[in-house]
Amino acid sequence: MVHPATVNIVEVLSQLLRALKPIAEVNGLLLHFEAADREIVISCRPDIIVHDVTDLVCNIISYTLPGNSITVGILKEKEGLQVFITNTGVNLYCVAEVTRNCRHKIVVTGSTENKQTRFHFNLPCNLREERKIIGPEAMPAGNKAIPDFYNEIRKRLRSHFSNADTLVAQLSIMYPNEAAFLQKINAVIISNMDNIFFDTSVLSREMNMSRTALFRRLKPLIRQPPATYIRSIRLHRAKELLETTDISVGDAAFKTGFQTQSHFSKAFAESFGFLPSSIRRRNKAATNE
């Protein structure tokens, strides 16, 4: 059980935003942090706050097109504190998926006319005057209230930005025409899954587009180069095969268009953080139990 900790909540959020900022920038978004005070000491559950802010920001990144901005801030109120997140470019008021996994009660307001949304949750906690503060670098091992930012974010990004079905589902809510385009892209890639010669050039010919036109239309949707996206779909399919069948690592590599098992294993480890052979060992262990 994680107990409440006395923390400088401004520093907690500031550290979190430093970890999230490069991800926003890669996706063509600006990420800002606003706080009137440099230090606000409170007794709270910082792990839950970090979880919810991370979840909200990652979801907002998923739905917001490049060229816009996201702002995270904290306000003092009579009842306690308010943590808020705003975005420009799209009104996400009706997109329930953005707040679905949050543990705090999230209040959402949106403006279709101004294409922006505001999310906030309240912290009904007493402001503290103690000077003994637990910061991100000083959390005791037994009460690690702030998780490993990068591992948490990496895990969420795989779900938000790499899974083909997730991307289509997200686009279908706000941009149905682009969702249909991406669905066709995915169908072409999947139909060529075992073709080791399939690449961006082949994809552009199949779509009757120039490589330049394909890149310009596709990259804002998938937030990565088309070649990286093709490899991601191959790797997710290989992972699914290894987890649900008795296929060998070499056969999984061959069926998903990799020329060599060594190249496949290296790409797999870079994407998922572990070797494909570990899935086979885990499956064998489960069978023997």
Q: What is the distance, rounded to the nearest whole angstrom, between the alpha carbons of the first and last residues?
A: 31 Å
Structural class: alpha+beta
CATH topology of the largest domain: Heat Shock Protein 90
Sheet with most strands: strand arrangement: 2-4-5-7-6
Radius of gyration: 22 Å
Architecture of the largest domain, according to CATH? 2-Layer Sandwich
Q: What does the main sheet amount to?
A: 5 strands, mixed
The overall strand count is: 7
Task: Estimate nothing, just give the exact number of structural domains.
Answer: 2
Number of helices: 11
CATH top level assignment of the largest domain: Alpha Beta
Description:
Keywords: DNA-binding, Transcription, Transcription regulation. The chain is an alpha+beta fold and 289 residues long. The protein folds into two domains: 5-160, Heat Shock Protein 90 (2-Layer Sandwich), CATH 3.30.565.10; 164-288, Homeodomain-like (Arc Repressor Mutant, subunit A, Orthogonal Bundle). The protein has helices at residues 9-26, 46-63, 149-162, 164-174, 176-191, 200-206, 211-222, 226-244, 249-255, 261-272, 276-288; strands at residues 5-8, 30-35, 41-44, 69-77, 80-88, 107-111, 116-123. The strands form two sheets. Strands 2-4-5-7-6 form a five-stranded mixed beta sheet, with helices on one face. Strand 4 (69-77) and strand 5 (80-88) form a beta hairpin. The two termini are 31 Å apart.
